[in-house]
Amino acid sequence: MTEKQKLTLDEIENELGKNPQNIKLRILYAEALIEEGFLLDAQDEYKDLIKAFPEDPEIIFNLGVTYEKQGKFDKALSLYEKAADLAPEDPDFRYNVAFMLDKKGETQKALQEYKKTIKLNPEDANAHFNIGYLYAQNNQSDLALEYFKKAKELNPEDIYARFDLAFEYKKTGEIDKALDEYLDLVKVCPSYSWAYFNIACILHETGDKKRAIEYFHKTVEVNPKDIETFKILSDISPTKTKALEYLKEGLKHNSKNGELHYYLSKIYKKMGQLEKQLHHLKKALENEDTLFVNPLLVAKEIRTCTG
Q: Can you give the pTM of this predicted structure?
């Protein structure tokens, strides 16, 4: 909490001390408590306010927010529904009803409420995206694409709408459209490593190995903790020397990763360098918590090397 934020909260408390019946101040105070993370205190304030204003949808809604932030979704949903019933034309109240149903896994009800939200506010990009996501989860790609496109149109900066739109294109076999969307996405968000990875996968699958390596390399430039991409780079490298180069680069950023050490041991085995193979097998076993292969198999390989 910054000093400015503390003073703001303190100032409200001081004013309330002078005028405890000032409803506007009490509402402002409750909102400030939520913003600062004092959820139980905010909850108490809203409960007191509801006693005086039992039909105020904004107060009821904000009480719901305090429960949502605590992960108490059933209680939050009940309050959001009450707020939406009291103010049926408010799209924000309706959206939160949908979002809570979504969180609870009640997909069909959530879809209905998101669609009601869109009727109230056709420009709600988040509602369009969430509908698209639910359809995608249910393998209804045509409908998912429709809503992802609209979400992107309404909010071109939404990287998740762009990513999921590209993903659905790929899933439905529209490879060129998927590739174009991913390429546009990394222009909007150059730090999105998953987009680079998916571009690389498409290029590799379509036979453009050179560009695939380029984009796999971009993936680990953005996210040097991406172990799987370093492994893929080693697998598709044209030479063992280049494969070693990628794996060693991975180890610079992930020195205690057993999987990378194990991959290095396999390359050295192919090159007939027993001492280096054994070194990395031992390192792999020392870091078995990051090994995908069974540690017992690694131990067996070590015994074979030293037997």
A: 0.86
